[in-house]
Amino acid sequence: MWRNWKRLYAESVHIRITSYFLLILLPLVAMNLYAQNKSQLILKEQAMERTKGVMQSAMQFIDTTLLNVEELSNLVVTDSTLNRHLDAADGELEPNDILNFQAAATELIHFRTMNRTLSQTMILHTPSSLLLSDSGYSRLNDMQNEDWVRETVRSNGSPWYYIPAENQFTSLGNKDLIHNTEVITLMRLMTQSEHLREPSIFMASIRKEYLYGLIGRLADPGQGTIYLFTPDGRLAVGTPGSNPPSDWEVKGGDFGTIREGEQSLMMVKVASPSSGWSLLMLQPQNALFEKSSQLRDQTYVITAISLAIAVIVAWFLYRGISFPLRKLIRGMKEIRLGRLDVRIEHKRADEFGYMMDTFNEMMDQQRFMIRDIYDKELRIIQTELKLLQSQINPHFLYNTLDSIYSSAILVGADQIGEMVLNLSKFFRISIGRGKEVFTTEETVVHLGYYINVQQLRFKGRLQVDIRVDNAVRSCMLLKLILQPLVENAIVHGLEQKSGKGQLNIEAYPEQERLHIRITDNGSGIAPERLLFIQNELGAIGSTDMKTLRHDVKELFGLRNVKTRLILYYGDQAELHIDSVEQQGTVVLVTIPLASCADPIGGK
């Protein structure tokens, strides 16, 4: 059966054309489905971003509310009049103490009127176990066994929020004031007097209904839920009748997705950087993707119709024998455009296969007749040249990224933006394709972006002086011909030197040649190493281009610069290095001025 099918496929144009159409349509269908899924992800991200923005606004209102309450508590605990009334009373109450407590209750009423968000203000007078509020006072029993009392003492004057649980057991006589599950209460120690062993406790209650009013409208009614958490992860308020999932922490960011039963929930979390309180919203994804799901179903129907149409069209194309002829026509058009390397690939065994084989043989003969030795040699040199140039960019990229990393550690983040800006300007030219030569002035401007990045990294220890003679500003230089030399001066010279470093770059004409001198006062090069470098660079000439080794890692950047100079400007272009150890290094590039006007022609 396989042999029969293979023979039928080789001999039947109809089957082949139908298969080709299916091969064309199936990737389009796959791309369409991929686009549908991608659009859902984009829709989800946009919805999360919008939700996050609204939640951040609500978080600001909550921060303002909590800040006002904490500022009010600070006024209360430091109020001298109120503390004087409380200090006057001790464990055994006298008639005068009752009057002082009444005065203190009056003060509480005054403070509560200053903040309308508070539902109750209270003070626990620890020596007498009396709870004073703006509505009166009562004695608390077994006060020392209350968790909130111990926690307030441990806070040592810092405010914290008490959130009573629904089934909280209490021995207080007035349970509704403190353990009311409809409020959250800020608790804070009063200023301690010298004759009191234990300070009193100030309490200010905020109704959960008020806090939920600030966030409740953010969630879709009947579908979404929203929760407010304290800095230590305790639930303060949430959508009535619902509980947050146990794994509500968003891993790796502000967005996430969890499953609750058979339903997928979109989870968005916003945390306040100032107060530490956080909001968590859960929204069902089904409602978000309802319309896109309808569009996906319509896509399935359109795909099925398209497949049926493809089969019908393939039949008509088969009847017209158009597919093999189109291949031949396409090949002829390529020839007319001058592309002599065109070749028709096929595995046909019929007459059209014979025609395409004849076409390929004809093109092989044409290529053999047109291409000569000069054309081949030129292509080889251009290919090697592009390879050498492409090897420079990654080398610089890694060094520069190391510089950005070092700078991020040594300085604040406000300098990283400037480094990245200069780096992006540098790569816009160095990695961009098309233009391979620039004027000397453009080259210096481009080089300045790299130098700016290095100066930020050196934090004021690198001084740079660039001087370009007006007579050579319009001379054409290869892209990235100077950058590796400046990089070597900084990384291998100035970076190894303690104290300030000086880098000088000069471009001037002399004896019909363009001279570019790069000087640094870095650590220099040892005599043995300098001799090795000079010998290696001196061995590179135009006759070595075909035997040039690309796997040599020693002197990688200098070899590339010297090779590119010779390929573009000829043997008269030179790269010379001189150095004195612990004093500095001088790199001199000389190029014939005639070659600078037209580098390729100059060669």
Task: Outline the structure in words.
This protein has 603 residues and is of the alpha+beta class. It has helices spanning 2-11, 13-77, 80-87, 95-113, 147-155, 175-178, 208-215, 285-288, 290-320, 322-336, 351-370, 373-410, 416-430, 440-458, 483-494, 527-538, 556-569, 593-597, 599-602; strands at 118-125, 130-133, 136-139, 160-162, 183-189, 201-207, 225-229, 235-238, 255-260, 263-271, 278-284, 437-439, 462-468, 476-478, 501-509, 513-520, 574-580, 584-592. It has a 6-stranded antiparallel sheet with strand order 3-2-1-6-5-4. A hairpin with a 3-residue loop joins strand 17 (574-580) and strand 18 (584-592). It is flat, with a radius of gyration of 40 Å. The chain is built from 19 helices and 18 strands. It comes from Paenibacillus phytorum. The chain crosses the membrane at residues 15-35, 299-318. Its main location: membrane.
Quick description:
This is HAMP domain-containing protein. By secondary structure, the protein is α+β, with helices and mostly antiparallel strands.
